[in-house]
Amino acid sequence: MVRFALTIFLSAFLLFQVQPLIGRYILPWFGGTNNVWTTCLLFFQIVLLGGYAYAHFLGKMPKKKQAMVHLTLLVLTLPFLPIAPSVGWKPGPENEPTLRILLLLLVTLGLPYLVLSTTGPLLQNWFAVTNPGRSPYRLYALSNVGSLLALITFPILVEPNLSRWQQVLFWSIGFAGFALCCGWCAVVLWKDSASVDPSATTDAKGKPEQAPLQLGAKTKAMPASTPPPPAPSPLLIAMWLGLATCGSAMLLATTNQLTCDTVPVPFLWVIPLALYLITFIICFDSERWYIRPVFGGLLVVSVPIAVYLLFEGVSAPLMQQIIGYSVALFACCMTCHGELVRSRPHPQYLTLFYLTISAGGALGGLFVAVVAPMTFTHFHEYHFALFGCVAITFLAWFREAVTGAVPKHAPAGGYLTAIIAVAVAVIVAFLVMKEPVTDWSGADESVFTQLKEGVSNYWDAASKQRVLKDVGPIGVDGIRKTTFIKFSAVLGLVLIAAGVIIDEMRAKSGRRPVLFLAGPSIAVLIAGNALIKNINEERGDVIYQTRNFYGVLQVKRDESHTNTFENDEGDIVSEDIGPWVRLVHGRIMHGFQFRHEGDPLHPARRWHTSYYGPNSGVGLAIQRHPKRLSTGPTLEAMHIGVIGLGTGTTATYGRKGDRVRIYEINPIVEHIARTYFTYLGDSPAEVKVVLGDARIMLERERDRQEIQKFDVLAVDAFSSDAIPIHLLTKECAALYFDHLNDDGILALHISNRFVRLEGVSYALAKQMGARAIYINNEDDEDHNDKGVSGSTWILLTKNAAFAGDEEVIDASDPWRSDETVTAANIDKIKKKMKDEVKRDKLQVGDPNPHHPLHLWTDDFASLWELLRF
């Protein structure tokens, strides 16, 4: 028993330790996008299916032959060690990322991962053969414990303390240890094949018949005359496949949903995968842990929570997203895996059962990683996965109600209180979180009239005061979303209570009444209707939408924009400057333009809009660079580099004679920038777009001695809402400065909702011996609206003339940029400190508490302490 338990545990640990390890290793090579992890998961699930198929068919061979084949396979894996991928796999702009990642993983760790994936079902089968009468299912739960431990330890212990090469080395050593343990089990099986269990009978061909296995500790061997257990029907196998597929799709879709608008990092990868494994552990440890009314009720409650978050999008705080999506994932996987356990077969069909589950896992991965990007132009796989989990659970309940195949379990009355308590806790915890606030102060009567009309379908708003009370704090959309979730939550509680009562009736009658299906049917209809509404809402004002490996891109158009400004006489006047078009990646806007199509020469077409206004960090870096301020007879030409094309707004700063070189990883972005925006074409500068990951392209240019000598290099590449980690490491900063002139300026755009990147930028400045200048600009004022959005930039430079420029000093926040406390900034620093004790003790010369240092390297880049929850 010990050898099987040790080998299965070690294999599961290594199996799931290598997943975030290799994903984090290759993440910088493919642009830092969340689809890197999704593609990795697809590979792991496909190979897992291959491993389970291998175990299934190998288990049909004689025991001696099984041992011989598997020992040979173990030896063949050794040349793959260590598993560090070759840098030759770094992609170029011509390479298709998904296929390249799959090939990279296949060549690097395909066979070792296949061997690890066979271990669970294969050794459980060996255990069943060598230990008749003992259940192998708890070994499956043990393997999931090892998997969960691997996932928890990676972001907490492994990633922060070991370099990438050390991670690869220790994992390879661990794999060698596993191979020895697995070989030990194979040798024991070989020896066992030489003897025949005297308690076993033989069949007509003289082969020993194994005693049927029962769930539980031990049973007696059954006589040979006992008929074999019935084989699973095709309908039951199809249900297994559907349950496994929906659970797997929900795992990948939730991971996408959590990371598409934040930062794809192991911490956010591990949470969904860990929850997925926890449900396996709970369900497969014992059938008594899956209490259908409890987890079915949790599913009913969690669906409106997930839909609420879909409507909120990036407006929801990160912690709310993590909790809400995690609750929905846990409920979906718990019901899917719980229904698998309730319908699992006799151990004689164990490998078929696991093979079907792994096939479902691979199908779910294919749906999210391959089919969805090819079929959907938005992240709608989450909608389909969520609805699929609800629907397949309903079908499993329906099958049981019709066939009467009801396993025995405790009566419902004993856990009614626990059910209600869990449901109420989930609802209350979510609803008490802060609602979005809209300031309606100063609104005139017409605004309130529109608001009353907006909520007429939900309340009979009889007066302006009622609108002020109910609508004022959160706005019409907030009322609709809040109303929906409260209504759904109350309905969920009612359905839970009804389900418990009816389940009690079933326990007494011995058959579940069809009436029980009324509640789940309503839940299916509500979920489907809400998800369709959310999909339709996302299509509003979209004139172009596409999706590829790097995410979803939308071009949206508003027909008019009124610019209110103060003229030379001091009067406030308004001008309709026509339609404006904006680019959205995921749910984050990445630039827009006032087209003014009636007048191609209208200056509004060349305004520095969104995050690139004249007072932004990049605007100051270009306009106040000494070359721009030169008083010579001719203007000095500048070489401006930009990482991240977007709409091409930065090209508006180019003058005749300037060169603007823009690096863009996503080829579709260039098509959009040239088709729906005119910034690139309108710029008098020489503009060149270089396709490919900026870091890889800059490295190759340096290797070819093509040093760019940029005067300003703006890092504005975003994976939706934040700069990819690999573009902010020490090694990458050195690459930037290799391509900068001695008086050049590196501009880092760090605006985002979820990660505090100031400390990372300050640490890079110190590492490079440069000055860090913090620039934060606000939105345009109402009476001078040229489309400038608030943004935060940090400028790194060794250019003393630029750092001493009066306009730069006035625009900067030296109290945040200065590394130490000085007499000039101490008052400002104290004013911004919340801790009164530390504020009173602060003295000149102390480290600036607003100037944290978090140096990222290619090997170490922890996000945990930088997240804005």
Count the beta strands.
15
- How are the strands of the biggest sheet laid out side by side? 11-10-9-12-13-15-14
Helix content estimate: 40-55%
- How many whole angstroms does the radius of gyration measure? 31 Å
* Alpha plus pi helix count: 28
Structural class designation: alpha/beta
Strand content: 5-15%
Question: What composes the largest sheet?
Answer: 7 strands, mixed
> How does the overall form come out from the CA principal axes?
globular
Cα distance spanning the termini: 45 Å
Low-pLDDT runs of 5+ residues are 196-224, 406-421, 429-481
Q: Averaged pLDDT, please?
A: 76
List keywords for this structure.
single chain; 869 residues; alpha/beta; seven-stranded mixed sheet; four-stranded antiparallel sheet; 15 strands; 10% strand; globular
How would you concisely characterize the structure shown here?
The protein has 869 residues and is an alpha/beta fold.
Outline the secondary-structure elements.
Layout: H1 2-26, H2 35-58, H3 63-77, H4 97-130, H5 137-161, H6 164-192, E1 201-202, E2 208-209, H7 234-259, H8 266-285, H9 292-312, H10 318-342, H11 350-375, H12 381-403, H13 416-431, H14 445-454, H15 464-470, H16 475-509, H17 518-537, E3 542-548, E4 551-558, E5 562-566, E6 572-576, E7 580-585, E8 588-594, H18 617-623, E9 639-643, E10 659-664, H19 667-675, H20 679-682, E11 686-691, H21 694-703, E12 710-715, H22 730-738, E13 740-749, H23 758-768, E14 771-777, E15 791-797, H24 800-803, H25 806-811, H26 814-817, H27 826-832, H28 836-841
Parallel strand pairs: 9-10, 9-12, 10-11, 12-13
Antiparallel strand pairs: 1-2, 3-4, 4-7, 5-6, 7-8, 13-15, 14-15
